[in-house]
């Protein structure tokens, strides 16, 4: 058993990168537990492993005392000095207690410890590999699904796609190949757990980087994204190079670039708008495709504004179920109140009359 164990430890170090000393430390602790469990012992014991021959020895460690109360843990000074006259009270003495048939138990324990360390090492390797892909897009194959998750095979690990991370209305069938965004990798006791998403805003960002070289190389920058997965998204971009139209660059000739992204997201509508330093201009762009007449900011709240649009553009500016206004607010970071031109005029007139009456009083 000893030579086999040594050879196994050497192979582990070479093939799996598991240090021999790490396995031996775990093996010694496991052998102590195995000894106590199999021989009904409760004394303080130590395991000694000979790294040259592979021999295993069990020692009971006892303290030298003047009066023995527990013979499993203590030895009298009189008995100790019979072994060696140099022993004093408080010293510890090791007595070998290796059972004759302990080799079989040691072999079983060693096998269990080695297998456990191999599993841990393999899990560590997989974790180290996939933690590098956190916040990135990967392509996986749908394997199965249950009431909680869709399970996506990424190669060495099965990632989970929860309901909130799925695109509403999108169906996932076995063997479908899909692009997913890895937003979290955890190293659990059962191995690496990878969480992926199809609805995360950063999935959209990574798709833009994949399909549009100017975004990948930094010529065009994505400033913010507002997304309602499966329905509509707004992306604010700006150019860092004079003469480069950021919106046109993202849309591409005849809309080919943006269409590739739309197709990947199963028809999700995409508005690409130009970011501007001027908040009023940025808000106007964010409400695309609606036309904006004016943007007036609330003097009491610098992150709130009223947007005035033509009467015939009000419903377009607000959008279906308020979606256009909601996405524009999320994109810009402003609370946006949209008013039609005629409605705003009435409010302004009423306000002017109030001021005039106050002045006359």
UniProtKB/TrEMBL annotation:
Q: Which residues form the S1 motif domain?
A: 133-199
Q: Mind telling me which Pfam families this protein's record contains?
A: KH_NusA_1st (PF13184), KH_NusA_2nd (PF26594), NusA_N (PF08529), S1 (PF00575)
Chief subcellular site? cytoplasm
Q: Which PROSITE patterns match?
A: KH_TYPE_1
Query: Which keywords accompany this UniProt record?
Result: Cytoplasm, Elongation factor, Protein biosynthesis, RNA-binding, Transcription, Transcription antitermination, Transcription regulation, Transcription termination
Q: Where in the cell is it found?
A: Cytoplasm
Membrane-crossing ranges are none
Which biological process annotations from GO are given for this protein? Answer: DNA-templated transcription termination; transcription antitermination
The answer to whether the entry has keyword Transcription regulation is yes
Q: Which SMART domains match?
A: S1
**Molecular function terms from GO:** DNA-binding transcription factor activity; RNA binding; translation elongation factor activity
Q: Name one GO cellular component term.
A: cytosol
* InterPro entries per record: KH_dom-like_a/b, KH_NusA_2nd, KH_sf_prok-type, NA-bd_OB-fold, NusA_N_sf, S1_domain, TF_NusA, TF_NusA_bacterial
The UniProt function text for this chain reads:
Participates in both transcription termination and antitermination.
State the family named in the UniProt similarity comment for this chain.
Answer: Belongs to the NusA family.
Q: Could you give the subunit structure recorded for this chain?
A: Monomer. Binds directly to the core enzyme of the DNA-dependent RNA polymerase and to nascent RNA.
| Protein name listed in UniProt | Transcription termination/antitermination protein NusA
Q: What is the lineage of its organism?
A: Bacteria, Bacillati, Bacillota, Bacilli, Lactobacillales
């Amino acid at each position: 058993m000893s030579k086999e164990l040594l050879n196994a430890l050497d192979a582990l170090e070479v093939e799996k990168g598991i240090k021999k000393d790490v396995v031996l430390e775990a093996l010694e602790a496991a052998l102590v537990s195995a000894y106590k469990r199999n021989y009904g012992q409760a004394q303080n014991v130590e395991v000694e492993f000979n790294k040259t021959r592979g021999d295993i020895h069990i020692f009971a460690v006892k303290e030298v005392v003047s009066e023995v109360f527990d013979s499993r843990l203590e030895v009298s000074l009189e008995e100790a000095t019979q072994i060696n006259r140099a022993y004093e009270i408080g010293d510890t003495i090791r007595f070998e207690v290796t059972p004759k048939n302990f080799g079989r138990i040691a072999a079983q324990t060693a096998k269990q410890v080695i297998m456990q360390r191999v599993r841990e090492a393999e899990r560590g390797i997989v974790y180290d590999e996939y933690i590098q892909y956190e916040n990135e897009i990967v392509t996986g194959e749908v394997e199965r699904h249950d009431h909680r998750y869709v399970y996506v095979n990424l190669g060495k690990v099965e990632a989970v796609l929860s309901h909130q991370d799925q695109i509403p209305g999108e169906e996932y069938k076995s063997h479908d190949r899909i692009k997913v965004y890895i937003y979290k990798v955890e190293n659990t006791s059962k191995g690496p757990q990878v969480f992926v998403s199809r609805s995360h805003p950063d999935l959209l960002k990574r798709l833009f980087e994949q399909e549009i070289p100017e975004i990948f190389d930094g010529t065009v920058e994505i400033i913010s994204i507002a997304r309602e997965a499966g329905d509509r998204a707004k992306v604010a971009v700006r150019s860092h190079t004079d003469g480069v139209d950021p919106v046109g660059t993202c849309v591409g000739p005849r809309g080919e670039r943006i269409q590739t992204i739309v197709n990947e997201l199963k028809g999700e509508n995409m508005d690409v708008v130009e970011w501007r330093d001027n908040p009023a201009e940025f808000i106007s762009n964010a409400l695309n495709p609606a036309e904006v007449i004016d943007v007036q900011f609330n003097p009491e709240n610098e992150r709130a504004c009223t947007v005035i649009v033509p009467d015939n553009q009000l419903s377009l500016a607000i959008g279906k179920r308020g979606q256009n206004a909601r996405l524009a607010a999320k994109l810009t970071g402003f609370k946006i109140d949209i008013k039609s031109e005629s409605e705003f005029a009435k409010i302004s007139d009423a306000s002017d009359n109030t001021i005039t009456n106050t002045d006359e009083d």
